[in-house]
């Protein structure tokens, strides 16, 4: 099989949700690329016909078992990964939304291998994705 048939043909739209509760932020440790093994904002792919808010609410539930109410977009970035030959392995356009905690206890699900609430102090000693650290620091003055 020709590898070019496996390569993506378009960027994939994804969402994340920044959720604070009791002076802590909800993060997941990624089980898969991009950011495999790093703590980051929970989220995932937007399905056809799904609003950004509905996608964020579904993805956060699937990854963390936390129910949220997603609000407005606050941050946007893309992640492009290439192989040694320069071919695109994946390309995600991610829109992060602010969200309100509704209920639930953090537990990993879907493609997260851990989910938990982090204080500012916790973040200083954690392996965060670069975009997560930047977002929390720049937008919320939250982090070390």
| Tally of DSSP β-strands | 7
The CATH architecture assignment turns out to be Alpha-Beta Complex
Biggest β-sheet strands, sense, barrel: 7 strands, mixed
**Rg from C-alpha positions?**
15 Å
Mean pLDDT over the residues:
91
Based on CA inertia axes, which overall geometry fits?
globular
Fold and architecture overview:
The protein is an alpha+beta fold and 144 residues long. It has one domain: Nucleoside Triphosphate Pyrophosphohydrolase (Alpha-Beta Complex), CATH 3.90.79. The protein is built from 3 helices and 7 strands; from the N terminus they run ββββαβββαα. Strands 1, 2, 3, 4, 5, 6 and 7 form a 7-stranded mixed beta sheet that branches. The longest helix is centred in the middle third of the chain and has 13 residues. It is globular and about 45 Å long.
Would you spell out the secondary-structure blueprint of this structure?
Layout: E1 12-21, E2 24-30, E3 39-40, E4 43-45, H1 52-64, E5 67-82, E6 88-103, E7 112-118, H2 120-124, H3 130-140
Parallel strand pairs: 1-6
Antiparallel strand pairs: 1-2, 1-4, 2-3, 2-7, 5-6
Keywords:
7-stranded mixed beta sheet, alpha+beta, 144 residues, Nucleoside Triphosphate Pyrophosphohydrolase
